[in-house]
Each structure stands twice: as C-alpha cells, then as structure tokens.
Design brief:
Strand order of the largest sheet of chain B: 1-2
CATH architecture of the largest domain in chain A: Orthogonal Bundle
CATH class of the largest domain in chain B: Mainly Alpha
CATH topology of the largest domain in chain B: MetI-like fold
Order of helices and strands of chain A: HHHHEEEEHHHHHHHHH
Strand content of chain A: 5-15%
Structural class of chain B: mainly alpha
Largest sheet of chain A: 4 strands, antiparallel
Distance between the termini of chain A: 41 Å
Strand content of chain B: under 5%
Helix content of chain B: over 70%
Largest sheet of chain B: 2 strands, antiparallel
CATH class of the largest domain in chain A: Mainly Alpha
CATH superfamily of the largest domain in chain A: MetI-like
Number of strands of chain B: 2
Order of helices and strands of chain B: HHHHEEHHHHHHHHHHHH
Oligomer: heterodimer
Number of helices of chain B: 16
Number of helices of chain A: 13
Number of strands of chain A: 4
Shape of chain B: globular
Number of domains of chain B: 2
Amino acid sequence: MSAETPLRTSTAEIQADNLDVASQWRLMWLKFKRHRLAVISAVVLVIVYSVGLFAEFLAPNDPHENNRRVVHAPPQRIRFIGEDGFSLRPFVYGYKSEVDPYTLRRSYVPDPDQVNYLKFFVKGHPYKFLGLWETDIHLFGVEDGTFFPLGTDRLGRCVFSRIVYGTRVSTSIGLIGVFLSLLLGIIIGGFSGYYGGIVDTLVQRLIEFLRSVPTIPLWMALSAALPRNWTPIQVYMGITVILSFIGWTGLARVVRSKFLALREEDFVMAANLLGASRLRIIFRHMVPSFMSHIIASVTLSIPSMILGETSLSFLGLGLRAPVISWGVLLQEAQNVRTIALTPWLLAPGFMVIITILAFNFVGDGLRDAADPYVR
Amino acid sequence: MLNYIVKRTLLMIPTLIFISILSFFLIQLPPGDYLTNYIANKEASGGSVNLAEVEALRQRYGLDRPFHTQYVRWITGVLKGDFGYSFEWNRPVNELIWERLGLTVSVSTLTLLFTWIVAFPIGVYSATHQYSIGDYVFTTVGFMGLAIPNFMLALILMWLGHRYFGLSVGGLFSPEYAEAPWSLAKLLDLAKHALIPMIVIGTSGTASLIRTLRANLLDEIQKPYVTTAKSKGLKDTWILFKYPVRVALIPFISTVGWTLPQLISGETIVAVVLNLPTTGPLLLRSLQSQDMYLAGSFILMLSVLTLVGTFISDILLAWVDPRIRYS
C-alpha cells in the first residue's frame, strides 16, 4: 500500500495533465459543456430527431385518418382531477358537440361523462417499426374513445400525430440540404482557395451574384418549375436541391477563407519543408484544423434550410399533401380567421421555432468551442 | 473615390446581364408555356379553345422560337422600357409592375429604417451592459426574432392587432383610400397599415444587426485606445460615441446590401399572408400560372433593386472606411 502512495496524484493534477495532452476534439467538448444553453439545446435536438425517427411509435393516431365527426375539435386536455376527485392515472374527456344558436357553428366541448384513461403501450393503427417489423403498439394513447392532445384539423385528423410525422420530413430536409450544400461548398470553395487567381475570381463573382438575387423569389421560381406530376419523393429531393442551390455559397466562403488563411500557417510550411505531399498536407494538416469551424457553420445554416422548406410549403410551392411536413401543416393556418377560431393549428409553428432556436444555440456553442483563442 | 465608383459601376454591367439571363431562364424552366397551361385549364373545365387564336398568340410572342431568340426579343424590349405582355391580365407588364414595385421599395425602406432605429440603441446598450438583465432579455428576444418564421409572426401579430387593438389588418390601405389619388390622408393611412409589415419583415434583420453590433462593440471597447482615452479622463459616453461606436457602425452600412435581398425576400412571403398590394402576391400568382413575362420582369426588377442597394452600400462603405477603397 505504502509503495503505491507516491504514484497517486490529486484529481486536479490529473485534469491539468490531461488538458495539456487532450486532443482538439476533447478540448472542444470541454468548452462546449460549459455553454449551458448549447448543451440543453443539443439535448432538445436529440429529442426532436428521435421524434422524427420513431414517429409511428410516438404518434397516438394515424396522421392520415379522417374523423368526419370531430372536425376542427379543440385539444383534449390531459387531466388528473375529474368529478370523482383526483386520479393518479391521467385521463381525457370525450367530445360533446354543441351548435351555437346564433352563428350555427358547431363546436366541441369536453364531456365529463366520457372519461378515457391514458395508457402506455396501447394498441392502435398498425405500422412497421423502423421499417423492420409490423406492430400496432404505440407509446401512449387511449383504448376507447378519442385522444387528440392538440385537437384536429379541417378533416378531423389528429394535429399532434401529424406534427410528430412532419418532424421526420422537416428536420431531415435540413440535414440532407446542408449535406448537399456542404459538398458543393467544400468542392467549389476548396477549388477557389486552392487554385486562386482566375478560378478564385470567377467563383467569388458567382457567389456574389447568387447572393444578390433575393432568395425567396428565386426559390419560388425554381420550385414553380418542378413538374406537377412528380411523386412526393421526387418533389422532396427537388426541394432539397433547390434549398442547397443557395446554401452552398455561405459554406464555400467559409471553406475558402479558411484555406487561404491556413495556407500561410507555419505548420503548413513545416510540413511542406519536410516533404509531405500536397494531398497529405490538405487532409492530414489543413482539414482537421478547419473541420470544427465547418461543423459550426453547418449547424448554423440548417435553420435557414428548415425555414426555407416551411416557407415554400406554406406558400403551396414546396411539399404537397399527402406528404406531411411542418410547412404543409401550417398551410392550414393561412388566415386570421383560422387563427382566431382554431388557434391549435398554429402548433406546428412552435415546433419550427423550438428546433431553429436549438440549432442556433448549439451552433453558437460549437463556434465558441471551436475557436482556440476564446478563453 | 471617383475611381472606385467608376470601377464598381462597370462591375455591375456583367452582373446585370447575368441576372437578366437567369430571370429569363427561370421562367422558361417549367415544361410548357402559358398557352399550353391555358389550353389544359380550358379543356379541364369543359370549355373550347380557339386553336387558331392560340396559334396566333404563340406566333406573336415567339413562344415557339428557341431560348436565345426569345431572350433577345425580351431583353431588347426591356431596354426600350417594354417588359412584354401579361397573358393572364391581358395587359402590358409595364402597367402592372411599377406601382407594386414602388410599394415594395417603400415598405422595404421603411423596414430598413425601423431596423436601424430599433437595433442601434439596443445593440449599444447590450454591449455596454454585457450580461445585465437587459442584455439577456434582448439577446433572448433577438434569438426568438431569428427563429420565428416571418409568416407566422405575421399571422400572430395580425390576430393580436385585430383582437386587441382593432387595427384593420391586411392590405396597405383602407378601402376608401385604395383607389384614391395620393394625399396626406392616404399617406397617413399607409403609415398605419405599414406598421405590422414593418415589424414582421424587420424582426429577423433587427435581431441579427443587434448581435453584430453588440459583438463588434464588445471587441472594440476592449481595445487599448479606449483604456488610454479613459486614463486621460475623458467621459465614458463621450469615448463610446466618439470612437468605438463609429467603428462598430460599419456593419450597419455594409449590411444594407445584405439586408436588402433579405427584406425583399421577407416582403414577398409576408405580402402573401398580409395581402399587401406589393410584388409578392402577384409574383406568386404569375409563377403558378406561368405568366412568363410578368414573372420574369418581377424577378429581374427585384434583383436589380438589390444590386442597386448593394451598390449604394458599397459606395457608402468606401466613403466611411478608407481602407476599402484603396485595397
């Protein structure tokens, strides 16, 4: 025992030692962890993307199923306290329809006589779990009666389930779009920074030109050009390509400026003098040192993709029903009347806001973490 | 300075040519043209089409010619001030676009002013009171402003305005002024209606401007010359506005060029929601019905507007910041 004691060091010392030899990624992680809001936002994003991944399991109802008897029904509140007092198991009241004697408008109010208890792992509409096996188990729901936690739309479809399904399309379009932009940005920006001279000038002019065209009219014109008879999948791909058509310019700028700055660094010169090949210098020395910046700017450019899809679909130029995306859902809430009478149709908008906020905070945190000069 | 302006003006010419080609290419992209669309719609609704008449129209506008011939015809017309003919409205494009473009420019300019007036004091406050409660509040509001889609903000504000303030929402004029000639009363009416669009379109721009100003000012305040000025006993506010703020103001000017495309983009979509008589709704409609000359002219003019905006901001920037014009 006593022989081992001198070998022990205090935890503080270990940490200090580790910090000196820690890799760049570890340093970034340590710094990122200190940015509270960014960490919380990262968790939010993980949740949002899991919702998209497990949409079928999480949605209590079939998002395409029409319920003609409960059209434009308000959200069913989840209750613990009913007429019989407190119940540990949450429940919802069923709907009772009422007709306004003056306006003759049909509306739905909670009916305390119909008590439906919420249960975990209830059977509902069948689906394929992750496309692997058939099942009809859903995380939560009711066994009898209806459960519309965010109300229904004009065809009596469950708004909550539709938002859950829409998450998949809306969030993935951001990722794929950014991936395409990144590819274009790295190739074109890299070329521009690597060759310099006339290529660089041409690319810079092209970028400036594309940035000077107002985005939304350009997107609108491009998506109006998508053939009407395309399948939803084709339209989806088309929209992503259109979104990344503009998105690459920003990333290309970042890549190029990093390339130009790093070319002059001492460590690049050292590698050069030691006889490293051009490719080795680029991929072994240059790319790792600007990768973190690229990741941060990518995170910051995903929101504009998501907003772009939402805006285009909202205008009726993007994705179209039967595809479910947040933008398609918001199309239902296009005028004041809808919002005044059925405010719950705006709910998809809040998902958009939460996701975009989260991306912005994570991007901010990553950018700070990636900057070695920020203390 | 004059050299710089001349150089900058010459650079605009190739860009303008590119923009005109792109605009024309974009409106040619959809398969078919307005007439095939028109025939399909007529036939779908059971009406009959006078094919000879359609053929005559096609001949007259050269719709059967190859791309470059059509483009040259169009662009020579544009240079003479003739933007072509709107098939859907049965009127020359000229009659349709100018008033709408004028309103778009006014709304965008008002929004830009609004953005500056709001962003400047908040940005300065946030930087001088870093990590104070006010700074946190403004930062949060700023982030929210960036995250809320324009059209959703428009919907919510429209509803609030209607519900709690009894503002007549939508449109830019009250019905009694819509067709009236310009007068002071009409101008006031416009100002009242422009408030919601201004807030809606300006929010995201304001948010990003606040963030840039705050970051720049924070960098600038920490510089040694500020400490020197302080040690010499100058008053804090005097130092602030005499030196760092002036340097930090550069992004205000340089972003005119950047915010203008954003404003016009935002304006396009917000106009559809708020039913403004600006370019947005008409552009959307013309794109959907392939009314090509109308759509093309709109895209061309909007892009030219942004180019001019960028041009002005570059000149201003060169005037304020001598480093730029000599590099």
